[in-house]
Amino acid sequence: MAQNEIKKTIKALFANGKGLLAADESTPTITKRFAKAGLKSTNKTRRAYRNIFITAKGMEKYISGIILFDETIRQKADNGTGFVKILKQKGVVPGIKVDMGAEEISGFPAELATSGLDGLEKRIREYKKLGARFAKWRAVYSISKQTPSKKALAENSKRMAKYAKICQKHGILPIVEPEVIMDGTHNIMAGKTATIKALCALVGALGKERVQLDKVVFKCNMVLPGSGSKSKASASKVATETVSALKYSLPKNIGGVVFLSGGQSPAQAINNLKAISNQCKKYKCQWPITFSFARALQNEPLNIFAKKQNNIQKAQKAFIKRAKMCSRAIK
Prior knowledge:
Elements: H1 2-13, E1 19-22, H2 27-37, H3 43-54, E2 63-68, H4 70-73, H5 83-90, E3 93-97, E4 102-105, E5 108-114, H6 120-130, E6 134-141, H7 150-169, E7 173-180, H8 188-208, E8 217-220, H9 235-249, E9 256-259, H10 266-282, E10 289-293, H11 295-307, H12 312-330
Parallel strand pairs: 1-2, 1-10, 2-3, 3-6, 6-7, 7-8, 8-9, 9-10
Antiparallel strand pairs: 4-5
Helix pairs in contact: 7-8, 8-9, 9-10, 10-11, 10-12, 11-12
């Protein structure tokens, strides 16, 4: 029964032309983004901001699921209806971020391991009662001469595999996100090498935990040069190296792949997504793909909201416009 639930969730998330909105920023993260936009972060402003996306009319044409944060899954819209109830009414699948952020790895001060296994099973049970049908766990890797190290890859992959096992036990689809971030001056091939290492380490750990791979979704970074690199990459090059890395690293029977935007500009993320989608069709990738964007979908609405908090409709129109562009990119 639990496994059938997961299959239904995967089918819903990869509905034709739809993708995910990642609205699971932790309070410290969204506070930083609000500050950058000139907005104060309070329970009230965070709720009002998330309300923009969840209540946007017609967003369900382009958005199949939304990843929520602990605070958000418990909140209500302006009309008093719970956010989760609204999503269900729209046919949008609610999901939840369950990791507890990163901590330094002892002896490896430049690297981080994601925490959150303590009490995870209890949290998963609660989130399921609150309406979540999928979960997400993120690990972060940076690129330098020393990183990512074997220790960081092994530790993060082991923890992520344990998380995935617990999710599947309770009929929750696990999304695993081993993100190689853009920070740095590395070229695109260094980005590809690190991405392959991260994915291969994770696939190995999932196998050791006997996680059912057809009931796991991978949230992957696009293969890119570092944000400080002198060398730039065309959308075609990004697509070629991204699809090559994924086809090398991922088994054919996984549930699917969703791509993160990872700090790219909205236009860059969408252009690269379209090129990757075309490349996947050309080389007949065995797994379905879609987007799972945060800033690429949220940047414009946030700036509108920050300037004038009651300008809800304008912010929603900006969100729908970007969501529609993302949808077109993967069709």
